[in-house]
Amino acid sequence: MPTALAAVLYESGKPLVLEEVEVAWPQAGEVMVRMKAAGVCHSDLHVMKGDLPMPTPIIPGHEGAGIVEAIGPGVTSVKPGDAVCPIWRSSCGRCDYCQQGRPALCDLGTAMRFTGLMPDGKTRFHNARGESIRHYAGVSTFSSLSTMPEAAVVRIDDGFPLWKAALVSCGVITGVGAVTHAAQVRPGASVAVFGCGGIGLNIIQGARMVSARQIIAVDTVAGKEKFARTLGATHFIDSSQCDAVQAVKDLTGGMGADYTFEAIGLPGPIEQAFDSLRKGGTCVVAGICRADARARINVNQLLYAEKTLKGTLYGSMRPRIDLPRLMDLHQTGALKLDELLTRTWRLDQINEAYESLERGEVARSLIVWD
Description:
The chain is of the alpha/beta class. The chain has 11 helices and 18 strands. Helix 4 (162-183) packs across helix 5.
């Protein structure tokens, strides 16, 4: 049985532990992927801090790209040597959600997310003591080798840089999709984005790509302004220094924005984003909150102002179709990726990488092999 260096979470609130783990060969309908890049994403931090409880021990990581090392019986969509992106919400392709073009809501991916187990109820990771280690989102990209369902990978162009593919696999597809699929922002609209992390920056560039007239970035970290403007923001509000809702209204002629997005995962910014809407506007929540989070919404605004409040998972997109399309958009110059990457880290620097993320020092960063 092959072994791999992995970052394992044994207890929430504690640093990740680097150790060699055993990785079982793929069984029927499974693939083994050798990771080449993995995203340092806030979603994993929620699990690491205990905001989203998960059974432990578990190997986090859900954003990435790699090369197929081996396949199990019955696998037809990929072969060894293929470049792939993990899909952190596997889908069966047959249920009502899948048939409606909403694969992120499929119960297959939901079950793996909450149990940390493969579809057969078992794991493919073990530590040196023989203990089972669970999978995060079915993919566990913080292991240099990871066995996952065939449904959890999508083949990509062999010539596309894998570090760029890793960026697209979560942050880009979620942010851009929030604009194009969840909100369906129209050209010439005004947009306000609360939170300029990896998701928020891609919402900003999604708004730029659909020709929004006004793109207002909102964050409590003044240093995020340079990232936001590079990706397409026309205005920046340091919400630590002012009333963000009033500032958005001041920039939109007192009306409020046509579309607002929350990309942090906190009740306060969700409330601010909703209150910053104009009449008839749409607020989309893309940030992952604590499991017990509640936001206070003025319900009368849903009625008298005809505001819309909705959520989006995976940008409400179809990863098997839309991930390759986004990569094509980068090739045409429409989608910025080089500008997103602030720095790279080795796997043994992963705890340092998350400290940097929490301090707001990066737009996006990656764990890279080779």
